[in-house]
Design a protein that fits this description.
The protein is an alpha+beta fold. Helix content is 17%, strand content 33%. It has helices at 11-19, 49-52, 84-95, 173-180, 230-238; strands spanning 21-24, 28-33, 65-66, 75-81, 100-107, 115-119, 122-127, 130-135, 147-156, 159-166, 196-197, 200-201, 207-215, 221-225. The strands form three sheets. Strands 1, 2, 3, 4, 5, 6, 9, 10, 13 and 14 form a ten-stranded mixed β-sheet that branches. A two-stranded antiparallel ribbon has the order 7-8. Strands 11-12 form a two-stranded antiparallel ribbon.
Length: 245
């Protein structure tokens, strides 16, 4: 869908991005993005998922375009449009909040209460070259309304598996909201999360976009799911968290 200069992809790059495909039809293509890969525009000098979409370029030079983003360290379902009409349709649906995103996260302890809603405005701050979000009073200049829902799926002495639903789509929203109630996500060093979980290293953010429900250009809704990565599953098992992810 674009005519930008194609990224120089190796056979290994192409094989990798093709292996992440969880759904494809004439209008959309969806991936189970691995943690550590920027969706687009990352500062790290490496290919982003946006670059890797050149692996699906057509003979006319057009290629899919991402409909939304995930944080670099968040894994899971991410959607791209394969045609210009699909991109326009999905962009409008996103603005109208017709997408429903469900995430799974590992926490060192279950929230109290075990389920609830967090309605807390967020403010973006730049500290050096990094961007952060923090909870602020509603009348703070620049504050953005933010609403998240959470539900504990399983808990043990070693931690908890929690389902998260962002009703709004602010940067780092789920991470900051959970930290604001004293339950930062495992591996989230930026917002106070522990780097161990159930006695094992949590070397990266344990947040996974597990399900995406969205209106499809052909009509109706589609639901896509992405299995959790092996490292997430291993920590879940180590903490004896039996709920299905």
């Amino acid at each position: 869908m674009t005519t930008r200069t194609p990224a120089d992809l190796s056979p290994e790059d192409i094989a990798a991005v093709r292996s992440w495909v969880i759904h494809e039809d004439p209008h959309v293509i969806a991936f189970n993005k691995p943690s550590g890969l920027s969706s687009q525009g990352g500062r790290i000098q490496a290919h982003t998922l946006d670059d890797l979409l050149w692996a699906f370029a057509r003979s006319n030079g057009k290629r899919p375009e991402l409909v939304h983003r995930l944080d670099r360290d968040t894994s899971g379902v991410i959607l791209a449009a394969k045609t210009k009409p699909a991109a326009g349709f999905l962009g409008k649906a996103m603005q109208a909040r017709r997408f429903k995103k469900t995430y799974l996260a590992l926490l060192s302890a279950a929230p109290e209460p075990t389920s609830g809603t967090i309605d807390a405005p967020l403010l973006r701050q730049e500290i050096g070259r990094e961007s952060y979000m923090r909870v602020v009073a509603p009348d703070t200049p620049g504050a953005q309304a933010a609403l998240s829902r959470y539900r504990t799926l399983a808990a043990s002495e070693d931690g908890a598996l929690v389902e998260l639903d962002p009703a709004t789509g602010r940067m780092h929203q789920l991470r900051v909201h959970m930290a604001s109630i004293g339950r930062p996500l495992a591996g989230d060093a930026r917002y106070g999360g522990a780097l161990t979980f159930a006695g094992k290293p949590a070397s990266r953010l344990m947040l996974h976009a597990s399900k995406l429900v969205f209106p499809h250009p052909e009509g109706g809704y589609r639901a896509l799911e992405a299995p959790v990565p092996a490292d997430f599953e291993a920590l879940k098992v180590a903490a004896r968290l039996a709920a299905a992810g």
